[in-house]
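Posting here for the record, re: iron/sulfur cluster.
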Amino acid sequence: MNKKIGVYICHCGGNISDYVDVEKVRKSIENDEGVFLVKTTMFACGDANQKEMVDDIRRNELDGVVVASCSPKLHLITFRAVTERAGLNKYNYVHANIREQVSWAHSDDKAGATEKAIHIVKSALAKVRLAESLEPFKIPAKKAVAIIGGGVAGMRAAIELSNMGCPVTLIEREHFIGGRIAQWDVLFTTDQTGKELVTILYNDLISRDNITLFTGAEVISNTGCIGDFKLKIKVTPRFIKENCHKGNLQKAILACPVEVNDEFNFDMTKRKAIYHNFPSEYPHLPAIDPKNCTRCGECEKICESVDLSQKEELIEVQVGSVLMATGFDPYIPAEGEFGFHEFDNLVTLPQFKRMIELNDSKLIFGGKEIRNIAYIYCVGSRQTDGENKYCSRYCCTSAIHAAILTRKKFSNIQNFHFTRGIRTYGKQEVLYAESLKGGDIFLQNYEDDPPVVNQQNKMTVITVNDILTGKREMSVNADLVVLVTGMVPRADNSVGSLFKLPKGRDHFFNEIHMKLRPVETVIDGITICGACQGPKNIMESVNSALSAATKSFSYISKGELEIEPIIAQIDNDQCTWCRVCAEACPFDAIHKEINGTKDIAVINNSVCKGCGMCLPVCPSDAINLIAYSNREIESMIDALAGD
Amino acid sequence: MAAINPEFRTELKKYGAFDFNACYNCGNCTAVCSLSTTEDSFPREILRFSTLGLQDDIKSSLKPWLCYYCGECSTHCPQEANPGELMMSLRRWLSAQYDWTKLSGLLYRSLPITIIALLITAIGVLAFGAFENFQLEPIMKFAHQFEMIAIASVFVLILLPNVIRMWWFILKKPGVKVPLSKYFVEIREMVDHMFTQKRALECDKNRFRWFEHFILVIGYLGLLFVTVFLDWFASKNIFIISFGYLLSTIVFVVTFDFVSSRMKKQKEISKFSQPADWLFVIWLFLMGFSAFIVRLFIDTGLLDKNIWLYFFHLIILVQWALIIVPFGKWTHFLYRSFAMYFAKIKA
Ligand SMILES: Cc1cc2nc3c(=O)[nH]c(=O)nc-3n(C[C@H](O)[C@H](O)[C@H](O)COP(=O)(O)OP(=O)(O)OC[C@H]3O[C@@H](n4cnc5c(N)ncnc54)[C@H](O)[C@@H]3O)c2cc1C
Ligand code: SF4
Ligand code: SF4
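Prediction output follows.
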């Protein structure tokens, strides 16, 4: 069937027509096969031209349209919409880029540019002649979301999804919920405590019927894809059924003979094998840590609710989308980094935050009262030689906030900050001003000339070439050195590999586009938020959590998903299942199935992105990419190469 | 290597400095300062020294004296760290360091001690009056002699040694080597500055203040000359008498303007006043004004009946000569001129 094709050639207000003779382009194609009308226009994307196109298509019953203008990134969708408005299936529209690829690239050669434009338009014509109407695929979507990680980001996202009427499975690896913020006590910039925030979120969470919370739980496998993820969750027992009788819990903890480092306090204190992080930790039930518990039964004798016979459980859930909120780990300095582990009075900022909470009227460390505190900034961040090139964002503000808190809570404190330039961006700047006015002293060094920590005669001396004092060498005697450590990805982030989530150069989970698609990942149906994506403070974590919740819900809210029909197809007769296509596919969209008597490759339509990587590797030419068939591509090449 | 000494800030606060901690080293103050130069850049650097407690660097620095408190820095400081006021406080602190008797520091730091000192001198004058049975003639005669003795001894015992100490801190101790001849060549510079304060002219928008300051110096030095060497109060010469009237009028009119501007607090320089600043302008005003009235009462024959007026004038005069000149803000005028001299020698 011969198509009736309409072609529009855009001046782009001179951007194109200053270098390309658009009239010549028009003339050279007006008699080509199938071309029913050709027009030049000052602005193809302008309202008037769009209306004219709709009229042309309707009146002349065109069945193919080409616009030769700017990059398809800018206006492919615009002109597809124009054809749809005119009642023509949008896959009958083909875009020709004669601005970025022609006029801008060849502004020094007008004749050559015009020639190239003619070829590009002819090749678009070749494609549109063979174009077919297509309908998007529809697949059912399970209206439920799994959230991995119950920190502030995960909890807030859960509540938001619940508000939208979406059932949520919230999966937290620890026995207690809240993530890192439960550890920080008083927070910048609101001076609320982390516990207060966790309390608000937890009470809201458990009051909802459509949120199922698993603690001590981890996803161990995933099959399926957007619309239908099938997750297997391993739930480790807490060995406690309900709360002990009043007071018995404390006795049971006392009775437990096993003592281990308390990770909640970054190993600065000890806890028992039966424990809670702090008395009102959520859920209020304590837990027994199976790794260290010797099953001696001492606690069981005191508290009737202890049940050491509880077993690990495996649970399967099916969800339409997965939201990742697994958070971060604090950076652990290398041995000897600024004297870490060499000198006894060095702590990291997370440890120091715990110290502020755990000490009462006096700040004591190693049996000594602390007065002079030196903070060394950017430890593990902004590394010139190391891997962590990024700024951890939270730490300048947190260190300054901690310094102010310390000055207010304990007496005779003098803070010395060794910085690389303060980044208390946005509203956090007021803390910097407060700290300066309160008498904290700030020194600054270049990245290649860091401060040096030394110990002589039991004195810890920090020296730095202070660039604010003409690089003069300045020294401070400190009772305590706080290494202001940054954020790094979770040491165990293997859950990401279950979903093939890509990571950035910084090893945090990566979004598609930092600005335009900041919570989506290239794996359809999986969103990311909070500090698992990169350093964030609470406000930023929650912002991204709300946006990820909305995005996850938008995939599945209709109960079905529409998928671009431009995907690969297997010719069952030709296919011999040599598996090279499956290996070439970056999205794992191809698997083997039995077809009658032989094995063949099968494409999962909801996973295939139509990237075409499988096509050239197939030795039996059994794969076809819809809308980019061999015939279409070859005819385009012919048009480009013709004279 | 220099050790940071945060305590120094507590010390400086006693000399009137405040909020300079808030400085975040943006350098705006130095950029807007019309007196700061590439070689001698301030005030940011001095703020930094003060925050870190680098006392030796401040002691050997002339920069606090190169500042004339135009106040541009304080106006433009985004942190409201009041760099201008810190420079002023450092001038007080420095004068206390130069003073071998340590009395300056005591008076700057403590208002009660200043008041006690003023009271003691007042009582001394009254006691002396009682001793002389409040006879105007011998008292006036003695007072005239006292003026000469006081000027000579304050100069020899206090001011000269202190200027030598200043020289020690600035040139000798840091080991600055200069040929002796330079000391002679540059004397002109000092005299020039002492009388004209011409550097203040470089302060933007401040021509009127400079002019006021200039005629005040002329008026003050002139009045000193007329009373001490021409014995104004005893003189019969019509020229001397009217000259004295003119000079004392200049002194009290200009100082009256200074006092009222300190009260209005519109200009940066007059926003924050320490007791020493009030003392200086008020006593100078009282001195000019009481001298004027005393001479007026002499000319109208009223003084004999109003002997209290003369005592009032005498008390102000003695307090001025024994407290404010050697240990108060008057010395700034002296140190500033020497600072310009030393700066020229150093350059
Ligand atoms: C010392 C310090 C002080 C800070 N102070 C402040 C402050 O005052 N104000 C402020 O705004 N911000 C502060 N922050 C930043 C704040 O901690 C983070 O913004 C916030 O914790 C990020 O929340 P999140 O939920 O993304 O991650 P997290 O808090 O790390 O929570 C992630 C959760 O996911 C769980 N998890 C991880 N992996 C898995 C898995 N595979 N399966 C199931 N669950 C998993 C974890 O157990 C954890 O509960 C501070 C940070 C530090 C280091
Ligand atoms: S926030 Fe501050 S301390 Fe943290 S990495 Fe960035 S600049 Fe360094
Ligand atoms: S303008 Fe203010 S904040 Fe900036 S350097 Fe000067 S005193 Fe410091």
